[in-house]
Design brief:
The protein has helices at residues 15-24, 29-39, 75-84, 89-110, 125-140, 170-175, 192-201, 265-274, 302-315, 364-374, 378-391, 398-402, and strands at 2-8, 44-53, 56-65, 145-148, 151-152, 154-155, 157-160, 163-166, 181-182, 187-188, 204-205, 212-220, 231-239, 248-257, 279-286, 292-300, 322-328, 332-340, 343-351, 357-362. By secondary structure, it is an alpha+beta fold.
Amino acid sequence: MTTHLWIDAGAGVAGDMLLGALVDAGANLAEVQSVVDAVLPGTVRLALTEVSRAGLRAAKVDVEVIAPDQPHRRWTEIRTLIEVADIPEPVRDSAVHVFEVLADAEAHVHGVDPADVHFHEVGAWDSIADVVGVCAALHLLGVTSVSGGPVALGSGTARTSHGTVGVPAPATLRLATGWEVAAVGEGELATPTGLALVRALATTCEALPRMRVTASGSGAGTKDVEGRANVTRVVVGEVTDTDTPAAQALWVLEANVDDLDPRLWPGVLESLIEAGAADAWLVPILMKKGRPAHTLSVLCDDAHRAPLRDLVLRHTTTLGVREHPVTRHALDRSFATVTIHGHPVRIKLSHTGDGTVVHATPEFEDVRTAAEQAGIPARIVLDTANAAAQAAELREPARRRQD
């Protein structure tokens, strides 16, 4: 039996809204406050009130500053605050991962290295409290897996530290890549912090999954909009191996290509992954009259099938795309973080429904970044990360793997 959390962001999502929903679902606010205090001692106070949004009751958690002159912070400073704090390891790992996702998005938008990202709204004290508070609430509720539904992004314009920008904001749009979204409602309905929490913590975009519901909660945004309840909802439930689908229905798109410059293939594969493909790969083949070629294969769900088909047709020289349904059986996945030579390296954990770890694999992009910043070969960072994962007992013991 495991505890699953589903996030309903159909009316939008922000860090304080998700935190309010989790507190409304049963997370103890005083215990959440103690974890936030360990990261930001004497800085903020979490205040809970019950409000109405479009006639529906919801919990509103406000982050009140109690220490003046809180600065904007760089990602490296935020990471240090979280890593040195005396907080539960799962909370630390989750919070660091959320900010890593945010840093990657901001780095892409501003054209800088993630290590050089200087957060503004995201680096403020309230966003740090929201992220740490949400991760602490999930830990207190005993949540072991998270999924979510489509996210409402909003429309129009929003004021930021960079001036007035269109909605969705650039970082929010980057974070939305690969997730189902809709431009419904007026104004900014999904903030970068809120969407980063969804993307970092939830593994799947799906309708409410089968579970035995044990709790639910609604977290309110600041505005009370007529005709639209400005809330983020969560549903907590128990699932067993028989409750969780053993297979996922997906599609494979294929095309044979014999006249594309080979130097273009890495970019094509990267574009497909960024556009929502579950996987994309090439297989060398021999076509009629002995012509060497490649078969491009793209694995995706039905929602991404049409846009990915169009991308294949636009980015390659193929004249057509084949499609066929497949069934995928996949292990559950989560992330932990180890520190190698002062740099974070995420470890992707693949595990069975009962939590037994089958694989623990360092994320190679993190390995490469750490190697470049530390000035050492990537193979050394990779070996060290594997050893750190073993030492932290992220890997299943060798005896059990041989059974």
